[in-house]
Amino acid sequence: MARMYARRRGTAGSVRPYRKEAPEWSNTDAAEIEKIIVELRKDGMSSSQIGLALRDKYGVPDVKLATGKRVNEILREKGLESEIPEDLRNLMQKALGLRKHLAENKKDVHNARQLQITESKVRRLGRYYVKSGLMPKGWTYKPETAEILLSR
C-alpha cells in the first residue's frame, strides 16, 4: 500500500519475534517493574522513553509480557497519564517547530507543505482521540494555543 502523502510504497521494517511469555533471562517481577515505571514517569520521561529505559537498563524486553499491562495502562492506573497522548504531542511539537522556522524563512515552500501535512495529521489524530474518549469532546487543534498546551 502506498504512503498517504508520498507517491511511493512503504519500506519493510523489522518485526519483533512473536512471544506469548517473557524470556527466562528477563526481569519479570511485575511489582518492581511498575515501581520503576512510576519513578521514571516522575523523573519526566514519556512512555516510549520509559520503555526504552526498561529495555536498556533493567532487562525488560517487553513490559506487556512481564506485567500483563502496557506502560500507558500502568500510568493510567497510578494517575500519572499525560493530558495529551504522546504521539499527538510529538506531532504538535513538530508543527510548532515548523511554524517558528517559517516565521523566519517565509519563502521556504517545502517546509510550508510539510507544515500542512503535519497539521492535517494532528487534526486527524485529534479526531480519533476525541472519538475514542481520550481527549475531551469538542477538542480541536489550534496552532495559536498549541504552544500553551505543550508547555504544561
What report would you give on this structure?
With 152 residues, the protein is mostly helical. It has two domains: 30-78; 86-151, Helix Hairpins. It is built from seven helices and no strands. The chain has helices at residues 30-42, 47-57, 63-67, 71-78, 86-104, 109-132, 143-151. Part of the 30S ribosomal subunit. Residues 1-10 have a biased composition (Basic residues).
Order of helices and strands: HHHHHHH
User: Which architecture of the largest domain per CATH?
Assistant: Orthogonal Bundle
The CATH class label of the largest domain is Mainly Alpha
Helix content: 55-70%
Shape: globular
CATH topology of the largest domain: Helix Hairpins
Spans of at least 5 consecutive residues whose pLDDT stays below 50 are: none
CATH superfamily of the largest domain: S15/NS1, RNA-binding
**Rg, please?**
19 Å
Main beta-sheet strand count, sense and barrel state: none
What's the β-strand tally? 0
Counting structural domains, the number is: 2
Terminal CA distance reads 38 Å
Mean pLDDT: 91
Family: Belongs to the universal ribosomal protein uS15 family.
Pfam families: Ribosomal_S13_N, Ribosomal_S15
Biased composition (Basic residues): 1-10
Keywords: Ribonucleoprotein, Ribosomal protein
